[in-house]
Amino acid sequence: MAPPSPPPVSLRVTVLSLRILTTVFLVITVIILSTNSVTVESQGTALKFHFKDVYAYRYMFSAAIIGLVYAVIQLFFTISELATRIKNPINYQLDFYGDKIISYLLATGSAAGFGVTKDLKVALLALIALHSTDPVDKFFSRGYASASMLLFAFVCLAVLSVLSSYAISKH
Fold first, then answer.
1. Which of 117, 121, 141, 163 is most deeply buried (CB count within 10 A of its CB)?
2. From CA 56, how far away is CA 119, in angstroms rounded?
3. First to last CA, the chain
């Protein structure tokens, strides 16, 4: 029996492009979240908030780190496959299951980030009397930005998940 033919070059380039985009979106998410902090002064008291103080942001950060590790590993495999034109049959399984699991992780991380950002912003502004809401707005805008980048990474992985379903059905 002849070995299965490799996927067309255009499909492999599309997969590589999506893997690169996923990695870039996840790196941006990690950078934005890890630098997100604010000091709020209210009634003579300074309160410092960091992303680690919010459990949903921690979850979002963890999802982004796990996704980034997976994306880098998959990027290595994709570049190797593109260079050698040989794909290990085990990689089809890794692509299929890994893309699905990690995409769901990224989707839940993004949803948690959007939800907590909206709820905390309203609650914080209602509880603390501030002279200016600019620092708080900046903190939560970064929360929205990182959740958006995580959502974009999810979309890329969701497309890759469909492509890996197609690839595994052919092999």
1. 117
2. 11
3. 13
What is this structure's pTM? 0.86
Tokens encoding 168: 């595994």
**For residue 37, what are the β-bridge partners?**
50
Q: What amino acid is encoded at 83 in this protein?
A: A
Query: Nearest to residue 72, comparing CAs of 12, 27, 10?
Result: 27
Tens digit of pLDDT for each residue in 89-109?
778 888 889 999 999 999 999
Task: Give the model confidence (pLDDT) of 107-124 as tens digits.
Answer: 999 999 999 988 888 777
CB neighbour list of residue 158: distance below 8 Å, 6 or more residues apart: 103, 107
Residue with tokens 């996704």: 67
Residue 146 near residue 111 (C-beta atoms within 8 A): no
State which amino acid sits at residue 31: I
* Mean pLDDT score, 111-138: 77
Segments of the chain assigned E as strands:
37-42, 45-50
